[in-house]
Design brief:
It is a single chain. By secondary structure, the protein is mainly alpha-helical. It is built from nine helices and two strands, in the order ββααααααααα. α4 runs antiparallel to α8 and α7 runs antiparallel to α8.
Length: about 250
């Protein structure tokens, strides 16, 4: 689709020629003509060669980290010992969703390497650094706020119940078993939080690596563009006059 504009006698006329072979309606074709920039959105083989295949590995790691974060976060959410901040904000779920989004963008950037997509991936990964640090802080706070006061409260001296319903030895045995269960529950909760902190640290390392790869790719692309601009033979290639000048 091509869009032309003509001004005459204070009147501006837009002439739009649609593509009859396109399956999209004219409105979508107009938006594509206004927003689509071939230089920014076209897939670049130079970017594909510069990026390599490491982004797919990093993206898969981010998706795996996000899924594990949501899974272990669900375990904490189902417990009564979690802090009010986790119950109120549900941060393990949206943190995991963000990690999956960052990983998906890395996969798309490697599959369709264009300047816009690579730049967007770098921006999201830089934001992912902040989110990963936030996750580390939140899960660390969660460990310090684990609360098991309600565990074995029935055996507390302040609890009002009929102490004659069970013999003293049996009651003491039940209390010891309850305290052992409380200790196991504390260890499990702390262990899950430690795993989530480790996953967040892994995510921090991965998003930093992904951002560095994207920045290097954009920098090398800019250097390559400047080299081609300075080379008159390559200018012919850019103008479409000689497609084999730089081969």
């Amino acid at each position: 689709m091509s869009v032309t504009m003509a001004k005459q006698d204070g009147v501006t006329v837009f002439t739009i020629q649609s593509n009859p072979e396109s399956p999209w309606p004219p409105v979508c074709q107009i938006l594509k003509s206004l927003c689509y920039n071939p230089l920014c959105c076209s897939v670049s083989q130079h970017l594909r060669k510069t990026q390599g295949t490491s982004l797919s590995v990093l993206g898969a790691m981010q998706i795996m980290t996000g899924l594990l974060t949501m899974g272990f976060g669900g375990i904490l959410r189902a417990s009564q010992a979690t802090s009010w901040a986790l119950n109120l904000t549900e941060f393990p779920y949206w943190m995991g969703a963000l990690f999956i989004t960052f990983g998906s963008m890395c996969l798309l950037s490697e599959r369709f390497p264009s300047l816009c997509l690579v730049g967007l991936t770098v921006t999201l990964n830089l934001a992912g650094v902040a989110f990963a640090i936030t996750a580390i802080v939140l899960f660390s706070i969660q460990i310090s706020q684990l609360n098991f006061w309600w565990y074995c409260s029935i055996y507390s001296s302040s609890y009002n119940y009929d102490r004659t319903t069970a013999p003293p030895l049996e009651r003491e045995f039940s209390r010891q078993m309850c305290l052992e269960g409380k200790y196991v529950a504390q260890v499990i909760h702390i262990g899950v939080n430690v795993v989530l902190i480790i996953l967040s640290i892994l995510e921090l390392c991965v998003v930093i690596s992904s951002a560095i790869i994207g920045i290097k790719t954009l920098r090398n692309s800019r250097k390559e563009e400047n080299t081609r601009t300075d080379d008159p033979e390559c200018n012919k290639l850019l103008l479409g006059e000689n497609l084999s000048a730089c081969s």
